[in-house]
Design a protein that fits this description.
This protein is α+β, with helices and mostly antiparallel strands. 30% of the residues lie in helices and 42% in strands. The protein has an 8-stranded antiparallel sheet, with helices on one face.
Length: 172
């Protein structure tokens, strides 16, 4: 009986974790590491600090997170492989100020996927090339870049309201 219950619990956990990963991966290519986990990896690497920017991009077909953290008058830029979670590179620079940070609880994979899906739908299809959570004019914004058959669509969303602030289209 215990084995059946344990098997049911393990199976439920597998499905609970597999669902978000498959939705995440479908919009963001082969990404296996969530936004939340990427932030956690970066903070574990630098120590607690102020997270000011979180970017996901697909460069040369490889999904990568770049996270910017300010701590003790240091600015850290951490690049993380979005498939394995491995830290690819860390840049560190001395600074005199700490900009406003993001509300990290806002930067969830579910919200990011929702905004990315909205951008793809508004662009008439295509694939996500880049997503960037940032602060602009005192508010948190999400920049989403979609490539659809040679057309580059750049969306900027107000993260608090999900409203599209700006949408630009350019031919590549």
């Amino acid at each position: 009986m215990k084995k059946k219950v344990l098997f049911a619990v393990v199976l439920a956990l597998v499905f609970a974790f597999a669902m978000p990963v498959s939705a995440h991966a479908s919009v963001l290519g082969d990404t296996q590491i969530s936004f939340e986990r990427a932030i956690q990896i970066a903070v574990e690497h630098t120590g607690n600090g102020t997270v000011t920017e979180i970017e996901w991009e697909s460069k040369y077909g490889l999904p990568v997170y770049e996270i910017e953290i300010y701590r003790d008058r240091q600015k850290y830029e951490i690049k993380i492989d979005a498939v394995t979670g491995e830290i690819i590179r860390t840049k560190e620079k001395r600074t005199s100020s700490t900009p406003d940070g993001l509300t990290v609880s806002q930067v969830t994979s579910a919200r990011t996927i929702e905004l990315a899906t909205t951008a793809i739908n508004r662009a008439g299809g295509g694939r996500i090339v880049e997503i960037n959570w940032d602060r602009e004019r005192g508010r948190t914004v999400v920049e989403v870049e979609v490539n659809n058959n040679g057309q580059k669509h750049e969306f900027i969303f107000n993260a608090a309201t999900d409203e599209i602030i700006r949408h630009r289209t350019r031919s590549r």
